[in-house]
């Protein structure tokens, strides 16, 4: 099975806007997805570098940058990649 890399932005803006709640998503994934996902925190994904702070928190699933990231959005992105 392919491994999906999920990066959670832990920069100040994203952290304040809720990325801290996304950091434990690996434990909340459906059992079938857990072994296929690697979750890491990263300093900054540069999503708000253009001044788009309304898009925070940002996360990246493989090469897809996700604005206003939620657990549900991340799970959906993971499932698309795994075609579950």
Main attributes?
84 residues; alpha+beta; 4 strands
Summarize the structure in words.
It is a single chain. This protein is α+β, with helices and mostly antiparallel strands and 84 residues long. The protein has 4 helices and 4 strands. It has helices at 12-16, 25-28, 31-34, 71-82; strands spanning 4-9, 37-42, 59-61, 64-66. The mean pLDDT is 88.
Instruction: Please provide the ordered H/E string of secondary-structure elements.
Output: EHHHEEEH
Mean of residue pLDDT values: 88
Structural class: alpha+beta
Compute the number of helices. Answer: 4
**Hey, roughly how much beta strand do the residues contain?**
15-25%
Strand order of the largest sheet: 2-1-3-4
General form: elongated
Specify the helix fraction band.
Answer: 25-40%
Low-confidence stretches: none
Q: What is the gyration radius calculated from CA atoms?
A: 12 Å
Record field, number of beta strands: 4
N- and C-termini, Cα separation = 11 Å
Assembly type of the shown chains? single chain
Major β-sheet profile: 4 strands, mixed
């Amino acid at each position: 099975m392919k491994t999906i890399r999920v990066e959670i932005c832990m920069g100040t803006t994203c952290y304040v806007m809720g990325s801290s709640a996304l950091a434990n998503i690996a434990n909340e994934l459906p059992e079938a997805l857990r072994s296929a996902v690697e979750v890491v925190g990263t300093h900054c994904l540069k999503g708000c570098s253009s001044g788009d702070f309304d898009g925070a928190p940002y996360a990246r699933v493989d090469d897809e940058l996700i604005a206003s990231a939620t657990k549900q959005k991340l799970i959906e992105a993971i499932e698309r990649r795994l075609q579950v």
